[in-house]
Amino acid sequence: MDSHAHLNLMPPGTPPETVLEKAREAGMVALVNVGTDRERSRESVLLATTFPDIYATVGLHPGDAHLWGGEMEREFLELAGTTRVVAIGETGLDFSYSDPPNTVQEASFAAHISLAHTVGLPLVIHCREAFDRVFSLLKDHPLPSRPGVFHCFTGGWEEAKQALDLGFLLSFSGIVTFKNAEGLRDVASRVPADRMMVETDCPYLAPVPYRGKTNEPSYLPETLRVLASCRKEDPASLAETLLDNTRRLFAMNTGHPG
């Protein structure tokens, strides 16, 4: 299960049908296509209504937080009512950006948290150089009953514990396969098995041995193998656990295995 992908951002000449077929051959049973702005959220919903093994999220990436407004919120509220939308996001804070300002990002993030609580869907959180403020805002707002996931988690164990204490899952991307990611592998080895997910974040962050190439869902087994190795688990067994976790968080029905 690829818990976080952007098929609509793949390079020209890579239609979703082709990407999905390769992923299915690699064992993937479902994929969550994540919205990052108004147009990309619409595209994600269209993909989810076209392909039975795709689900969608709707949200505004913090890098575009200045675009947030009432009209977008109303559209996301409407889209969130469709059966193929399983989460709100990706949203959060990315303080590696100087623009939009932190306060603008925080306002958008707070609105997404409220939206998720209203519609009863989990959050997909993007957090970069902003863990303290992300945790502070999450604690200041009512959360949905299934709080959500920190996607592409790259924090240390202290950040991991805080996220877990708030009820969130942690999703690991191809970054965990990188040579300099020893600390992240240590975190992945310590996270409770029922609180983990795995993702590609395609077309970004291709795992070793594909690093530097366009990422795609069929590469997910490489990340899974590294996660299993650092946890000293069987890859097939871990795949089943991560699939169950993702299905539970997003309240989706998919088959086994994958």
UniProtKB/TrEMBL annotation:
Binding site residues for a divalent metal cation 1: 4, 6, 90, 201
GO molecular function: DNA nuclease activity; hydrolase activity, acting on ester bonds; metal ion binding
Keywords, sorted A to Z: Hydrolase, Metal-binding
CDD domains in the record: TatD_DNAse (cd01310)
GO (cellular component) term, any one: cytosol
InterPro entries the UniProt entry points to: DNase_TatD-rel_CS, Metal_Hydrolase, TatD-like, TatD/YcfH-like
Pfam families to which the protein is assigned, alphabetical: TatD_DNase (PF01026)
Residue sites binding a divalent metal cation 2 per the record: 126, 151
Similarity comment: Belongs to the metallo-dependent hydrolases superfamily. TatD-type hydrolase family.
Full protein name: Hydrolase TatD
